[in-house]
Each structure stands twice: as C-alpha cells, then as structure tokens.
Design a protein that fits this description.
Blueprint: E1 3-14, E2 20-21, E3 26-27, E4 29-39, E5 44-48, H1 56-70, H2 78-89, H3 97-117, H4 121-124, E6 132-139, H5 149-165, E7 170-174, H6 180-194, E8 199-203, H7 210-220, E9 225-229, H8 237-246, E10 251-253, H9 259-268, E11 274-275, H10 284-297, E12 301-302, H11 310-321, E13 341-344, H12 349-352, E14 365-367, H13 380-386
Parallel strand pairs: 6-7, 6-13, 7-8, 8-9, 9-10, 10-11, 11-12
Antiparallel strand pairs: 1-4, 2-3, 4-5, 6-14
Helix pairs in contact: 1-3, 2-3, 3-10, 5-6, 7-8, 9-10
This protein binds calcium ion.
Calcium ion binds near residues 203, 230 and 255.
Length: about 400
C-alpha cells in the first residue's frame, strides 16, 4: 500500500453571539486544520493538527514540506515516518507549527494502519485499560461583557448546574481574567450550584505570575479543586516549580508543549503533577506513546488536553484508553488513579457535526469505539460547508 494523495482542510466557524473569553483572548471563531491521506488501495485516514491558532501555517507545512516527501510511501509505518519527518525538519521545526503538521500526518497514518490491520488504534497500541472514559465538561468561560460580575455569576450558576444535569461528574472552569477576588467568587458560586460531590478543576490559561497563582491556589483549597491547569506561562519553569511547591493544589500543564524532547524537560524540571499533551499538537499518537512512558517513569500522571474537532476527540479516546492506571489499583477512580477525557462544551459544529458518529455521554463517560483505525467517518458536506 502506498500514499497516493494528501489533502489539507482549513475550517472556520464564526461564533457570532456565542463568542467567549479565556484569560488570554476573545474567541470569535473556531479554527481547525484537518488532513486527509488517501492510499492507492482506497483507504483514507484523517488527522488533525494544531488547536490554538490559525490553520493556514499548518496547512503550508503539510502541503509544501511534508506531503511531497510522503507520496508513494507505506502509510502503515507511522513511527518510522515520524522520525524521518522530525529529523528532516529538526533544524527549523522542533516546536510549534511543524510539530502540529507532523501531528496531523501521524494521526492520519495511525488511522490508516489500524484500518489496514482491521484493528482499532487502541489495539494497535497494545490494548485498552478501559472502554469507557470519564469525561469532564470544559466550560464556564467568560462572556463578552465580563465586567458585569453579578450577571456573570447568575450565568455561571445556570451553566454549571446544566453540566451536572446532563450527566457530568467533573467540570473544568476558566480563571485568570478577573481579579483573584472576583474569580474566587465565580468558583464559590459554582461550588454552591453543583454541591460537594462534583469535581472542579480550574484553568488559568497562564494568566498569573507565580506569586498570584500561589495566592489563588491557597484560596481555592477550601473549594476542593482537583487540579490547577497552566497557572503560569509555559516558559516560566521556575514559576511552575514555585507554584507546585507553595500551593496546595496539584499542578497541570503542557497543552502547548511538543514532542518527547519538550516533555522530557518539562517533566524532569519538576514543573507538574499532571501533564496534558494534546494529541493534535504534541506530535500525534507516536509522540504521545513516548511522552506517556516518560511521564509514568517520573511519577507524573498523563491526562491529555482535548480541544478541537471531532477528529481530535476521537484520537484522544483511542489514546486515553491505553494509559495505564496510575497507580495500578483494584478500584478505578477517575482522576485519582484513572485518566479522564476533556469534553469541551462551548459551541463548536466542527466537534459536534463533523463525524457521522456521535460522542454520547452516558453516566458521565464517553465510549471508546471498536471500529478499525480511529473509528470515524468524516462528513465531507461539513468540511465543504466550513472550508476557508
Ligand atoms: Ca487549557
């Protein structure tokens, strides 16, 4: 079998009145970069690359740099191809756009390899420790008019209760845009709305310096927050270590770190309790396997970040199924010894409508499919509808 063609898709959905904010930025649109790899036998694999920025640079890397090197190659050797493409782009790649492009290609090749073998990706990787993965709702962002705190608190109460009503047992809430006092009020309102038994995680999107993050971590302890994501800037390794030492909440991060080399340093420097590689960013499934082993050997839990189209969610399901219990115990408990999957709940038709298959939450969990490859069928009417 040989790779016959590689096609890039840049998709964009304007959010209109559903625009929202994190601590860093306004989100007026959703962007996804998808790649479709077709073989001479008619098998088609899909991948996704990048999460945070525009799709155009990733498309340029795939179209102009990687694709010409892949036509005619055997697509069922993703690990070998990963090493070759990384080695080729090492002097100008290493992090960022090139690794996002490599992620997209790698995911598509694993999809094809699985289909060619008649096996789901989780089985290609050695087996699933679980076929249902506890999901957490990512929501409770900031509205356009985030300065109207009383209105914002009312909205949050309803939003958080809505996630619990729809079956989630875990929520991740954004912090870091308002003062520590107002963000603490937001969290307290949420805790009151959902009661003591629902898990809360927080994500500052690196909105703090270390001393502010430590103050916030200490305030949040009484709300029983399960992890504190991206307290400080990704480059501020000393800040991460300081926050980890001086705040009582476990520290998570790594959604914009890349490859086994980047994660090696992030883990070895003692920055985090939980690493969050994003499959569409860190270098795909091949990089994920390596990062998982590194983290496990260093006593760090792996809980992937997921924030893209349906392809990113489907890829994460396959990968998370293969994460060993951490530690291995007789009683699986979400986030204590079992990984969980992020399930973003803000408006995104690229997540909800792109695939023929639907992600259905039941008893707070998503099911891992048994179909070969990623187990997905992409709706080309949706890629056409949102193509840039
Ligand atoms: Ca995040």
């Amino acid at each position: 079998m040989k790779i016959k063609s590689i096609t890039s898709f840049q998709l964009r959905v304007p959010l209109g009145d559903k625009t929202f904010y994190s601590s860093q930025a306004r989100f007026p649109e959703r962007n996804s970069y998808l790649v479709r790899v077709e073989t001479d036998t008619g098998l088609i694999g899909w991948g996704e690359g990048g999460q945070y920025g525009p799709a155009e640079p990733v498309a340029a890397c795939v179209d102009h740099v990687f694709a010409p090197r892949l036509i005619g190659r055997d697509p069922t050797e993703p690990v070998r191809i990963w090493e070759e493409l990384y080695a080729y782009s090492r002097d100008f790649g290493q992090k960022g756009t090139y690794i996002e492009a490599l992620s997209a290609i790698d995911i598509a090749l694993w999809d094809i390899a699985g289909q060619a073998a008649g096996l789901p990706v989780w089985k290609m990787l050695g087996g699933a420790f679980r076929k249902r993965i506890t999901a957490y709702a990512t929501g409770c962002y900031y509205p356009e008019d985030f300065s109207d705190v009383p209105a914002l608190l009312d909205g949050l109460r309803d939003e958080a209760a809505g996630y619990v009503d729809s079956g989630f047992g875990l929520l991740k809430v954004k912090i870091g845009l308002l003062s520590l006092k107002d963000d603490y009020r937001r969290l307290r309102v949420i805790r009151e709305a959902i009661g003591p038994d629902i898990g809360i995680m927080v994500d500052a999107n690196h909105g703090y310096n270390a001393s502010a993050a430590i103050r916030m971590g200490r305030k949040m302890e009484e709300l029983d927050v399960l992890f504190f994501e991206e307290p400080v800037g990704a480059e501020d390794r000393e800040g991460y270590r300081k926050v980890r030492r001086e705040n009582p909440i476990p520290v998570a991060g790594g959604e914009c770190e890349y490859t086994r080399y980047g994660f090696r340093d992030f883990i070895a420097e003692g920055c985090v309790d939980i690493i969050q590689p994003d499959l569409a960013v860190c270098g795909g499934i091949t990089a994920f396997i390596q990062i998982l082993a590194l983290a496990n050997a260093h006593g760090v839990a792996t809980v992937p970040h997921v924030w893209g189209s349906g392809i990113a969610v489907a890829t994460a399901l396959q990968a998370i199924a293969t994460i060993p219990p951490f530690p291995f115990t007789a009683n699986p408990i979400a986030l204590l010894n079992q990984p969980i999957i992020e399930f973003d709940r803000k408006h995104n038709p690229l997540r909800d409508d792109l695939l023929v298959e639907q992600f259905v939450l039941s008893n707070g969990a998503l099911e891992v499919p048994d179909r070969p490859g990623l187990g997905i069928t992409v709706r080309e009417d949706i890629t056409a509808k949102y193509a840039v």
